Amino acid sequence: MSGSHDDDLTIAPTSDLGKLPTSSGRPSGRSAPGAFAPGSIIAGRYRLVALLGRGGMGEVYRADDLTLDQPVALKFLNQGVAADEARLAQFHNELRIARQVSHKNVCRLYDLGDADGRRFLTMEYVDGEDLGALLRRIGRFPEDKAIDMARQLCAGVAAAHERGVLHRDLKPANVMLDGEGNIRITDFGIATAGGEDNNVLAGTPQYMAPEQLAGKPATIKSDLYSLGLILFEIFTGRRAYDARTIGDLRLLHDTGTVTTPSSIVRDLDPMVERVILRCLSKAPEDRPASALTIAVALPGGDPLAAALAAGETPSPDMLAAAGEAEALPAWKGLAAVVFIMAGLAVTAALSGRASLAGLVPLDKPPAVLSDRAQQIVASLGYTDRPMDSADGFSVASDYERWIVDNDQSPHRWDALKTGSPPVVLFWARTSPRLLATEGAQSEVRPGDPALTIVGMTLTLLDTRGRLREFHAVPPQFDPDPVADGKVEAQHWSTLFDAAGLSMSEFTPVTPEWTPRGFADTRAAWEGPLPDAPAFKVRVEAAAYRGRPVSFLMVGPWSRASRMVPLERTAVQTVLNALVVVVLVVLICGALLLARHNLKAKRADTRGAGRLAGFVLTGYAVTWLISAHHLPDFSLEFNSFMKYYADVLLGVTLLLVIYLALEPYVRRFWPDSVLGWTRLISGHLRDPRVGRDILIGCSFAVALTVLEVFYKVSPPFFGFPAPTPDFASDIGTLAGVSVLVHRIWDIAMSGLFTSMFAVLGF
Question: Which member of 16, 169, 317, 686 is catalytic?
Answer without folding.
Answer: 169
